[in-house]
Amino acid sequence: MTQPAPVSAAALSAFVARAFVQVGMPEADAARVAWLMTEADLQGSDGHGVIRLAPYLRRIRAGGLNLRPDIRIVEERAATALLDGDNGMGHLVMSRAAEIAAAKARQCGIGWVGARLSNHAGPASLYARMALAHDMIGLYFAVGNANHLPPWGGLEMLLSTNPIAVAVPTQDEPPVVLDMATTVAAYGKVKARAQRGEMMPEGWMIDRQGQPLLDPSRAEEGFLLPIGGYKGYGLSLIVGLLAGTLNGAAMGSAVIDFNHDFQTTTNTGQALAMVDLAAFGEVAAFKQRVDVLVRELRSGPRMPQVERIWLPGEQSHAKRVAQQRDGITLAPALRAALDAVAADLGVAALA
Predict the structure, then answer these.
(1) I want to staple 30 with a disulfide (CB 3.0 to 4.6 A). Which of 20, 209, 304, 315 is the partner?
(2) In angstroms, how far apart are the furthest CA atoms of the chain?
(3) Is the domain of 20 the same as that of 89?
(4) Mean pLDDT, the chain cut into blocks of 10 residues (351 residues total)
(5) Interior angle at CA 12, CA 43 and CA 191, nearest 5
(6) 29 within some domain
């Protein structure tokens, strides 16, 4: 299949927004969600970007998403808040959470905002990175939207990929941004591999007999592996408690598999915290110290065959810069899927 030409971020975002408006989403909300989905692809998080458009639309059409949510604070103290997302798009809920967290951190030094009745919101780093514009450290936690992980030694999938993201500001270096699932691979990566017709590496999944599972089209026959063995299982549980249980959101058997159930409210739980650098001293001095540490780590001796030592987020930053300049490369199967969405909705396709 011929590789389609890259598409600009603006054109891709405009297309996604057109699709959402066509199914009844208010224009401002559609533009916000579309841009965040496009940002996911810009930084290379292709398992959480526009690949999700068709499933989102299917959920909207099935009545599983509220297109005009009343996203509101239901519990609040000086440094904390609990948001009720009213079953709105997760991108909108977490964008609101970021605004509240930044305001509270500016006042108190730290702001922690939990959310319930939210939905899938794309890659975790999108929201941790929102702290950077405020000279703050961002921390994001979420319960995944389908269970793909059993407790260590078990067979019943009661936990999800439950991602963590942390963004740390720098002065001249790219920001340090860790974005990781508590499983070896996020399930979005499995879906992206399946769409591209690629096999998975050994170590991502195993079947119910404990054997390696390499074909992503057979993913439902097994489950994801946690990072670091039992430690990753423990980390997934703790993230779920912080992002889900604490907020009154779904955890364990209450988690809805949004890959198969498009009608039931997912009650997705997320949490976003921001820490104001100014609460700990001079902002510029902190950023300079991070720069020094980044350069020290990068310039140290390397093992044979290692060309470069990377810091968390550097490769995503480089991809973001390159694709903003040159356009976003979409896999042929994804481009075909987007064309099918355009035809189905009767909206202008990607140029």
Answers:
(1) 20
(2) 57
(3) no
(4) 84 98 98 98 93 97 98 98 98 98 98 98 97 98 95 93 97 98 89 88 93 93 94 97 98 95 97 98 98 97 96 97 95 94 96 81
(5) 60
(6) yes
